Amino acid sequence: MPRLIKNKRTSILFMTDFLYGFVAIAIIARLVSLAISKRNEARLRAAGATEYDVATTRILTIAHVGFYVACMIESEFRAAPISTMTYAGIAIWTVSIIMLAGVIATLRDLWTVKLFISPNHEIRTSILYKICKHPNYFLNIAPELIGFGLALQAWGTLIVGLPVYAAILWRRIRAEEAAMKATFPAY
């Protein structure tokens, strides 16, 4: 049975390939979700939906891409060996993507990365929304970023990037709450 890791040099190469594979899967997952968002956005606009908080959406987009890029750069320079933390991060990231799939399945055509209120918008009351008022943010985005950073052992990005992202996300949540309350008085 051949050994995958023969010495320190091949160990580093294996680690790099393994993490590059994870990063590729993470980027593909986000591109797929973006394609779903774009499709739903076109349908919502055609149905007369109103977009809210455009500026925060732009800032969140930059922050999300920036977080991923910062983690990748930090990981490349650190070249930390694969450890239990790497696997824990991948597990957390995987669960977050499963939660994203659940959110998309629940909201269906209403889900986008942008903040839209459709004329035929309905408040969802699935199990995800009973667990958490904002599952896309707290069950997907937050654990996604934490898992990605842990998997790449990007400690600096986690320490600096998460609080910055959280502040932007808090702004988005407040805007979403205001839009929902203005549309649905019982919200």
Automatic annotation (TrEMBL):
<dbReference type="InterPro" id="IPR052527">
    <property type="entry name" value="Metal_cation-efflux_comp"/>
</dbReference>
<feature type="transmembrane region" description="Helical">
    <location>
        <begin position="145"/>
        <end position="170"/>
    </location>
</feature>
<feature type="transmembrane region" description="Helical">
    <location>
        <begin position="12"/>
        <end position="35"/>
    </location>
</feature>
<keyword id="KW-0812">Transmembrane</keyword>
<protein>
    <recommendedName>
        <fullName>Isoprenylcysteine carboxyl methyltransferase</fullName>
    </recommendedName>
</protein>
<feature type="transmembrane region" description="Helical">
    <location>
        <begin position="55"/>
        <end position="73"/>
    </location>
</feature>
<dbReference type="InterPro" id="IPR007269">
    <property type="entry name" value="ICMT_MeTrfase"/>
</dbReference>
<feature type="transmembrane region" description="Helical">
    <location>
        <begin position="85"/>
        <end position="107"/>
    </location>
</feature>
<dbReference type="Pfam" id="PF04140">
    <property type="entry name" value="ICMT"/>
</dbReference>
<keyword id="KW-1133">Transmembrane helix</keyword>
<keyword id="KW-0472">Membrane</keyword>
